[in-house]
């Protein structure tokens, strides 16, 4: 007799497994347009506007974190990344906060690249991609075997359209797309005349004003999530251009022993606090090559979440190097944040380069081909063997 | 809490040592996994912990602690854990309305003052670790995640060293508790202030755990190497410091340690 209820218990136990989808939590997270939860740490991710960069950064930029871009020498490509980040916000319907001391934010917004949403564009690019593929096929015998099993970075616009879009750098975004978007702008020369209310904390006045402005928008527009919003939740994308440059009134770029060493790091710390408490993500470009004092960059990196450096080949001897003939520069991923976990998503390949095609800007793994394939291949093999030898010592 | 690290350090939460100063130092890699280890270790051991978390938010530490089998929220409610969330109290300090401020100074008061004086932070540590009559926790523990942040926030190196010295006197000597501090150090970075702090802390530590990224660069299966330095020389015997070197790999909920060159991927 006792066996019957026990069997029932087992059956019930089977029915209620622990493998249940957290439907409620999932749907709540997915409610914000243009985001997806991370597999690793459950944090909401945004696209940086460049799917190949998202891939390298472990899926995207997490909400509440800071993406720091070290500018290339002439700021050409870092500016593109900056615009991609904002353009992605426009396409996803996020609110924008554009801060600059150089260009007027309105002009920056006017020059955002046009998204490739139509099928015609896709076909066009599809043709381009297939052309490239056939070329690849012909070259396939030349490519060293060690590259064959490498994961391909998503470089062609065929996959998901909801998260991460592709942009045509040759066209600017049509003004209709902006109509539903809330843009907050911060142009330093205009703001300096206003009176600051915040405590100055021995911080550069430009930074104080910028923080005050970000704080005001986060709390006024309800991005802090403290009062439950009636309307749809949205993300604030913050973009700050050339932070730390002379135009922000900072002397870290102009002097070896700057008087004001702590302004930038203090700013980043407070900004980190603001971001962590709100539904927002921030991109900052910093002219790192101008900062002579290495200690400052070390501290800045420590206070940022994701740090990516761009090194363009313009004016460097690598421009004519046959190794890099297909690329316009190198990408250095300096730091990937550890969020809610002990480990971080590091991509397996560290040799990354970017290239600016006619319309698309992409980040790819450096593939070495051409006349000196053999030498390079042997060099790499020797390097790997050396690594193993050193490891085993 | 990583069982393998406990074995290497010959420590166990059943019998935590008293009066020790442990320095966690990381170079070219992130040593925060050690902070998570010591946080869960001392909470398991039943010590009263004051955690000065300057770098990350509470939820980050809480989620990682949950993976290691500890709930920080529960520990806070029990009164076992006093958590100072630097990012939050910094915002409170900067954006608070003048009239709202109570007489109680913020622990991070030094940010808004011209003199970099960490007295408020020290007072916070002292009041939170001084045992009341009612609680029955074992020795108090001070844990600091990233002392280097204090330098970034404008504190002078001497002020940081003073702060640590005062804490040692109160926590290690008077209350017979432990201090665990994380610092970044990178000889290449030319950060003289930071090097000054790191070097002088090294001289005073009873135990140094020095985590370094591999000199040969990134590796998927070996995340870095850890140097465990036991400062036997501090006890004024004529012996040398004991140094052990291991390599480690961080996994989702655990860290494995192995002798150099003996990672599972190489064997």
From TrEMBL, chain A:
It is found in: Cytoplasm; Nucleus. The keyword Methyltransferase does not apply. InterPro entries: Elongator_complex_protein_4, P-loop_NTPase. GO terms for cellular component: cytoplasm; nucleus. It comes from the Eukaryota. Its main location: cytoplasm. Pathway: tRNA modification; 5-methoxycarbonylmethyl-2-thiouridine-tRNA biosynthesis. One of its GO terms (biological process) is tRNA processing. The keyword Nucleus applies. Keywords: Cytoplasm, Nucleus, tRNA processing. Belongs to the ELP4 family. PANTHER family: ELONGATOR COMPLEX PROTEIN 4 (PTHR12896:SF1), PAX6 NEIGHBOR PROTEIN PAXNEB (PTHR12896). Component of the elongator complex which is required for multiple tRNA modifications, including mcm5U (5-methoxycarbonylmethyl uridine), mcm5s2U (5-methoxycarbonylmethyl-2-thiouridine), and ncm5U (5-carbamoylmethyl uridine). The elongator complex catalyzes the formation of carboxymethyluridine in the wobble base at position 34 in tRNAs. This is Elongator complex protein 4.
UniProtKB/TrEMBL annotation, chain B:
The keyword Cytoplasm applies. It comes from the Eukaryota. Its main location: cytoplasm. One of its GO terms (biological process) is tRNA processing. It comes from Grus japonensis (Japanese crane). This is Elongator complex protein 6. Pfam families: ELP6. Keywords: Cytoplasm, Nucleus, tRNA processing. One of its GO terms (cellular component) is nucleus. Gene3D superfamilies: P-loop containing nucleotide triphosphate hydrolases (3.40.50.300). Pathway: tRNA modification; 5-methoxycarbonylmethyl-2-thiouridine-tRNA biosynthesis. It is found in: Cytoplasm; Nucleus. The keyword Nucleus applies. Belongs to the ELP6 family.
């Amino acid at each position: 007799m006792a066996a019957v209820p026990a069997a029932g218990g087992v059956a019930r136990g089977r029915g209620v497994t622990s493998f249940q989808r957290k439907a409620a939590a999932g749907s709540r997270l997915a409610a914000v347009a243009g985001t997806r939860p991370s597999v690793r740490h459950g944090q909401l991710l945004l696209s940086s506007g460049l799917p190949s960069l998202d891939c390298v950064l472990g899926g995207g930029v997490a909400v509440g974190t800071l993406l720091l871009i070290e500018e290339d020498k002439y700021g050409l490509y870092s500016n593109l990344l900056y615009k991609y980040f904002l353009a992605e916000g426009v396409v996803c319907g996020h609110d924008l906060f554009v801060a600059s001391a150089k260009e007027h934010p309105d002009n920056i917004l006017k020059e955002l690249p046009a998204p490739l949403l139509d099928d015609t564009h896709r076909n066009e690019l599809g043709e381009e991609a297939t052309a490239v593929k056939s070329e690849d096929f012909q070259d396939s015998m030349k490519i060293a075997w060690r590259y064959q099993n490498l994961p391909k970075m998503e470089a062609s616009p065929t996959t998901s359209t909801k998260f991460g879009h592709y942009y045509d750098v040759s066209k600017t975004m049509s003004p209709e797309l902006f109509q539903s978007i809330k843009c907050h702008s911060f142009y330093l020369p205009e703001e300096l005349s206003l009176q600051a209310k915040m405590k100055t904390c021995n911080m550069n006045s430009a930074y104080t004003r910028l923080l005050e402005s970000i704080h005001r928008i986060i709390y006024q527009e309800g991005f802090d999530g403290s009062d439950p919003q009636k309307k749809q939740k949205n993300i604030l994308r913050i973009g700050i251009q050339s932070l730390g440059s002379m135009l922000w009134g900072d002397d870290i770029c102009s002097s070896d022993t700057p008087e004001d060493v702590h302004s930038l790091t203090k700013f980043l710390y407070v900004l980190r606090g603001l971001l962590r408490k709100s539904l927002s993500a921030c991109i900052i470009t910093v002219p790192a090559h101008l900062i002579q004092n290495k200690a400052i960059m070390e501290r800045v990196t420590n206070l940022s979440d994701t740090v990516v450096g761009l090194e363009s080949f313009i004016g460097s001897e690598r421009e004519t190097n046959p190794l890099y003939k297909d690329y316009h520069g190198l990408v250095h991923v300096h730091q990937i944040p550890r969020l809610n976990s002990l480990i971080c998503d590091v991509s397996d390949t560290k040799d990354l380069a970017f290239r600016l095609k006619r319309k698309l800007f992409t980040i790819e793994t450096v593939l070495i081909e051409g006349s000196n394939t053999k030498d390079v291949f042997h060099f790499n093999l020797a390097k790997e063997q050396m690594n193993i030898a050193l490891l085993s010592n | 809490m990583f069982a393998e690290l406990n074995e290497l350090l010959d420590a166990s939460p059943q019998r935590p040592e008293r009066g020790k100063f442990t320095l966690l130092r990381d170079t070219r890699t992130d040593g925060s996994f050690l902070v998570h280890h010591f946080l869960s270790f001392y909470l398991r051991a039943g010590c009263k912990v004051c955690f000065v978390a300057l770098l990350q938010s509470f939820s980050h530490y809480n989620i990682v602690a949950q993976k290691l089998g500890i709930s920080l929220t529960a520990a806070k409610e029990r009164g076992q854990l006093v958590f100072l969330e630097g990012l939050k109290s910094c915002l409170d300090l900067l954006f608070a309305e003048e009239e709202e401020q109570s007489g109680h100074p913020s622990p991070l008061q030094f940010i808004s003052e011209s003199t970099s004086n960490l007295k408020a932070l020290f007072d916070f540590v002292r009041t939170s670790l001084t045992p009341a009559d009612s609680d029955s926790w074992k020795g108090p523990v001070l844990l600091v995640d990233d002392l280097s942040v204090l330098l970034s926030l404008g504190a002078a190196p001497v002020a940081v060293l003073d702060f640590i010295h005062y804490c040692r006197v109160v926590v290690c000597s008077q209350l017979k508790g432990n201090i665990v501090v994380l610092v970044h150090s990178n000889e290449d970075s030319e950060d003289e202030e930071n090097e000054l702090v790191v070097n002088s802390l090294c001289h005073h530590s009873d135990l140094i755990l020095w985590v370094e990224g591999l000199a040969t660069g990134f590796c998927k299966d070996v995340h870095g190497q850890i140097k465990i330095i036991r400062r036997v020389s501090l006890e004024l015997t004529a012996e040398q410091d004991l140094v052990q070197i291991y390599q480690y790999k961080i996994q989702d909920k655990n860290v494995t340690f192995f002798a150099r060159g003996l990672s599972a991927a190489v064997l």
